[in-house]
Amino acid sequence: MRLTTGTKVAAAVAATALLATACSSGGTGGDSADGEAVELTFWAWAPNIEKVVDVWNSEHPDIQVTVNKQDGGDPAVTKLLTAIEAGSGAPDLMQAEYQKIPQLVSSGALADIAGEISGELAGHFPDGVWNAVTLGSDAVYAVPQDSGPMQFYYREDVFAELGLEVPTTWEEYAEVARAVHAADPNTYLGTFSANDAGWFSGLTQQAGASWYGIDGDSWTVQIDSPEVQKVAGYWGGLVEEGIIDNKPMYTPEWNAALNDGSQVGWLSAIWAPGVLAGNAADTAGTWKMAPMPQWDAAAPATGNWGGSATAVTSQSEHAAEATQFIEWLNTDPAAVQALVDETGIYPADIPASTAALADPPAFFSNQPDFYELAAETAQTANPFTYGPNINVAYSAYNDEFAKATEARTQAAFLAAVEAVQTATIEDLKNSGFSVKE
Amino acid sequence: MSVRASTRPSIIATAILVLGALYCLLPVAWVVVASTKSAGELFSTLTFLPSTHLLDNIAELVAYRDGLFWRWMANTALYAGVGGALSAIVSAMAGYALAKYQFAGKAAVFNVLLAGVLVPGVVLAIPQYLMLAQVELTNTYWAVLLPSIISPYGIYLARIYAAAAVPDEVVEAARTDGAGELRTFAQVAVPMMLPGLVTVFLFQFVAIWNNFMLPYIMLGDDRLFPITVGLSGLLNQGASQPAMYTLVITGALLSVIPLVALFLLLQRFWQVDLAAGAVKA
């Protein structure tokens, strides 16, 4: 047989593709002929989540899930969107942070699983959390996994030594910060981090802000709302006075400061014990958790920092099986218990979490009612809406607040808020969204 | 007297070289020292004070997800070894052809090649992803190997080297003796070009070994990751998790050992080539 050049090329491509299939140990959505197991791939970054998935795999030989660990947060989203754009290469399942869901939905990356879920699923989650995966519509884009209500963490031993009371209002927080810094100029009650936009948006959420809104068919952006201005002005004042540090969090320097006691407090979220245990192991047993300082002591509130859901991607050929798996993963009592034990998350599922969270985290064994207190604060989380270009808002935050913390003036903090608002609106319009100003 | 003075090393030049050496070696020293510290000591003890936890760190790294680290190392070795070798072969053929044959469009091909040297590989990663996605080769070993095979800089070097090291007379003599073109290339030209090809191989090997962007975009399956992408994942597990600095530092230390070994082994060829280039090019 004489082969034409075209046939030869086709044969070469086919042979290469075969070889490729043989080489790759887990491609997307393995073909499921009758009687064969459905294979699902799952992009996630929660530590040890593969151990929870192993439990599912051993109980469900017909639906096998493979975890592919990814770089958490933004990098994983970028990679997913590239694969969606290319038309192939996306996994069946994806860990998605709540703030990224509008962006993923508007890019067509997530499947609507409203038709696949069981009826009572919505009742498992707090309203605010459920709203984050439905975006207030009839569609369901993900099943909530964990949430991150914010609290105040502090060094109980240092507070006792200096005779300080735990601050319950932001006014008191400023006084305590002043006292801590006065006692030792190298020591701070906290830092304003220009690297952690999620932390700042949580603080503004507590003050009653919502960065985005939906008005009819249009988006609105309210990053320069009076509530955000209030929070930025407050922190700008503390940094200008020099009683709060201006260095970013999650740097080696900050880790060392937590460990050696030159940072004696941290406004963080429910997952803080894991971070403290990893970064400041020497300080075990000296920390305590308290509710956030309040703007209005009569109406306690908090915000969220972090937390994610599990979504089915629009490229999955097995949406029904994938949905079955994520419902189990995030609501089955045994699975939720395993999530708490193995990955150290604070589960979003209400019925299963009470049993799973009976004991305090090991790093806070000195605070037996840790999770009871956490559950009380979690109920006070304010509603908040994320928009389709939150990535732009967050990176504008990083740029603008890096300058503001460098300048160390209240005016620079307020200017940064305006700049983030402008950058976000501009990008939203340029991306073709309808924006109401 | 004056001759001896002029050959004495200048203090300023020596000082600059020492500074340069420190600039290159201090980070390496930091990695070596830091990999001996436990997570608690990493940011709390004196920076260059070694500790005793190197073996613990290695054990922890090896235990991470049932030894996934070794799989990443093997992947990197495969990508860099196979990619570097294929790249050297392709570069040798293309460079030899550009140096020794006259054909229509030769100047155009060479100019495109020169332009290719100027385009950083990072820029091409996403277009390459979209192309490979159309033939469904993303998330496979091929996704990283195929784009690594063509190295404009390697072809450029091979052309220069073929022009300098393979005399036209030798090629003519081989043809006169009845050798075919392929045989002339494989048995006459390649041995003469070998030191240059080792350089091409080393360049490409190191480039692939250190490459992050291409495999990062191409691969979703963490069992196909090279060491760079795998270690980066250990640092980025979300705000709610402490970064695993100790494991990443230990992993980085282990991952440069093969590179150092390779350079020491192939150093002889490397020196020959630099000298040859100085005289002939």
Give an overview in words:
The complex is a heterodimer of chains A (437) and B (281). With 437 residues, chain A is an alpha+beta fold. Chain A folds into 2 domains: 24-141 and 308-344, 3-Layer(aba) Sandwich (D-Maltodextrin-Binding Protein, domain 2); 150-304 and 368-430, Periplasmic binding protein-like II (D-Maltodextrin-Binding Protein, domain 2), CATH 3.40.190. Chain A is 46% helix and 11% strand. Chain A has 17 helices and 10 strands. In chain A, the strands form 3 sheets. In chain A, strands 2-1-3-10-4 form a 5-stranded mixed sheet, sandwiched between helices. Chain A has a 3-stranded antiparallel sheet with strand order 8-5-9. Chain A is globular. Chain A starts with a helix and ends in a 7-residue tail after the last helix. Chain B is built from 14 helices and no strands. Chain B has one domain (53-280): MetI-like (MetI-like fold). By secondary structure, chain B is an all-alpha fold. Chains A and B meet through α1, β2, α3, α10 and α11 of A and α3, α7 and α13 of B.
The largest contact between protein chains, plus residue counts on each side, is: A-B, 62 and 39 residues
Overall number of strands of chain A:
10
Low-confidence runs of at least 5 consecutive residues of chain B: none
Q: What is the count of helical runs of chain A? A: 17
Rg over alpha carbons of chain A: 24 Å
DSSP strand content of chain A: 5-15%
Identify the CATH class of the largest domain in chain A: Alpha Beta
Helix content of chain A: 40-55%
- In total, how many beta strands of chain B? 0
User: From the alpha-carbon coordinates, what is the Rg of chain B to the nearest angstrom?
Assistant: 23 Å
Approximate shape of chain B: globular
| Secondary-structure element pattern of chain B, one letter each | HHHHHHHHHHHHHH
Per the CATH scheme, the topology name of the largest domain in chain A is D-Maltodextrin-Binding Protein, domain 2
How much is the average pLDDT of chain B? 87
Strand content of chain B: under 5%
InterPro entries (chain A): Bact_solute-bd_prot1 (IPR050490), SBP (IPR006059)
Protein name (chain A): Extracellular solute-binding protein
Organism (chain A): Antribacter soli
Keywords (chain A): Signal
